[in-house]
Amino acid sequence: MVNVICGKENWQFIKTRLSKFENGVVDCCSAPIMSVDHQTDVATQIKNWWQSVEQRSLTYSLEFSHLLHTDVTDYYGSLYTHSIPWSLHGLDEAKKGKGKNSLLGNKIDSHIQAGRYGQTNGISQGSVLMDFVAEMVLGYVDEQINVELTDSKDIQILRYRDDYRIFSHSDDRAEAVLKIVSDKLRTVGMRLGVSKTFSCRNVVEGSIKPDKLAGIELQDLGSSNAKTIQKQLLRLHSFGQRFPNSGALKRLVGEFHTSVSKQSDAPDDLDVQ
């Protein structure tokens, strides 16, 4: 399967096809990446998630007032393998070339079925190769969502693998977009997990994982524990959520402002802050 994908013409075809999934309402943040320095590939991938998902989510709090989280149930196990040729060639061409190994997508599909006793539902889990195949299919879903939401300036969607973050200005708009996402995923055999779907009217709070926020709350507000300005701000935000408009909050914000105003250089993450 690797040999098929990495054939010179095939690889160029895949790259060209994947590029067509970009620049829409849905922004994919999970394309497989590799390290080019001393870090491991896993560490680089984690850093990429932090920068492209968490940090950008915080930045979007300046533009949007509502955030809706959702993800796919049994992501790898439910993927319909015949959707692989759809993603690479388009639905019409894939239907015409059905059952023929002349299409690259059908060759990849047949290899995956061969590794799963002929099953057409689900792909193997745990390898970068399968992550890449899944990104092809989800990129195709992104394209369908983008077509449905063309010229929509009041929303933004960040996708990291099967995790979706929908930014909007109202709960109703977010719910309407969620239905579109759900409908498009269903065409490739996937469905959203109801138990993991939740909305938040505080984009900053909703952008950070609950366990991370809890860890921040347990620590002092002082700079001795919070080494970066961003962490200090998150602690102030968490404190402000619990004790809004309190005298203690005003004092802490005043002290923070005094220390920040002494800095001469603008930080790289100014928008996030």
Please describe the topology of this protein:
Elements (H helix, E strand, L loop, with lengths): L1 H4 L2 H12 L6 E3 L12 H20 L5 E6 L3 H4 L4 H7 L1 H6 L7 H11 L13 H21 L7 E5 L2 E6 L2 H16 L11 E3 L2 H5 L2 H9 L10 H14 L4 H14 L13
Parallel strand pairs: 1-3
Antiparallel strand pairs: 2-4, 2-5, 3-4
Helix pairs in contact: 5-7, 5-8, 8-9, 12-13
Please provide a written account of the structure.
- The protein has helices at residues 2-5, 8-19, 41-60, 75-78, 83-89, 91-96, 104-114, 128-148, 171-186, 203-207, 210-218, 229-242, 247-260, and strands spanning 26-28, 66-71, 156-160, 163-168, 198-200.
- The chain is an alpha+beta fold.
- The relative contact order is 0.14.
- The mean pLDDT is 90.
The class by helix and strand makeup works out as alpha+beta
Strand order of the largest sheet: 1-3-4-2-5
Please give the count of helices.
13
What general outline do the C-alpha atoms trace? elongated
| Mean pLDDT rating | 90
| Beginning-to-end CA distance, first to last residue | 45 Å
Largest sheet: 5 strands, mixed
Q: Give the assembly state of these chains.
A: single chain
| Strand proportion | 5-15%
Considering DSSP H and I runs of 4 or more, what fraction of the residues is helical?
Answer: 40-55%
Radius of gyration, in Å, reads: 22 Å
Q: Unreliable runs, pLDDT <50, ≥5 residues? A: none
| Number of E-state strands | 5
| Secondary-structure element order, N to C | HHEHEHHHHHEEHEHHHH
